[in-house]
Amino acid sequence: MTKRITSAVNSLVTNFSRRNALLWLGGTGVTTALMVGTQKEVSAKDNKELKLVNPPTLYDATQNGYSHIAVAPSRARTVYISGQFGSDLQGNLVSDDFEQQLIQAFKNLRFALAAVGAQPQDVAKTTILIVDYNQNKLLPLGREIRNFWGYKPPANTLIPVPRLALDGMLFEIDAYAVIPETRD
């Protein structure tokens, strides 16, 4: 049954734009799930590297520094990187300033990725924690995301928090990366 539905949806997507197919099918939640599921399935089929997907049925999240979906290749190692923060080699905060901690946390994330043979483009998902969040903190965050990933950022969740593990800690980022078995 599922293959029949997927085949029918794929046929519609081939013959219509995704938006028109969605409208033609009635635009229900089930239809949206089928369309996104179909796109994910098609995108992941021949993928040898991490694939970031921003379906046309969702707004362009890349302008806000993340992608909606990350599809890992079938043959890859998964790496989980603990929250990196603005610390030096001794674990001390580099500054009381949010921006300085942010910049150092991204440096530390790069070091952690390199330690396991991963690159920024291998990151599928991040979680960002910001103390006393406000939209002014998005400007330096957006700049660091662009410096790190350009215009292909991973999936991400940003969580405002009242505090983090250490007094004075203002920013933390963890990451899930997938390292392809072979690179082209």
Characterization of this structure:
This protein is of the alpha+beta class and 184 residues long. Helix content is 37%, strand content 23%. The chain has five helices and six strands. It has a four-stranded mixed sheet with strand order 3-6-4-5. A two-stranded antiparallel ribbon has the order 1-2. Helix 5 links the parallel strand 4 and strand 5. Helix 4 runs parallel beside helix 5. It starts with a helix and ends with a strand. About 18% of the residues have low confidence.
Key phrases:
23% strand; 37% helix; single chain; alpha+beta
How widely separated are the two ends? Answer: 36 Å
Helix and strand succession?
Answer: HHHEEEHEHEE
Low-confidence residue ranges: 12-45
Task: Determine the mean pLDDT.
Answer: 81
Q: Rg to the nearest angstrom? A: 19 Å
Map the helices and strands.
Layout: H1 2-15, H2 18-24, H3 29-45, E1 51-53, E2 69-71, E3 76-85, H4 98-115, E4 123-131, H5 138-149, E5 155-161, E6 171-180
Parallel strand pairs: 4-5
Antiparallel strand pairs: 1-2, 3-6, 4-6
What's this, in brief?
With 184 residues, the protein is of the alpha+beta class.
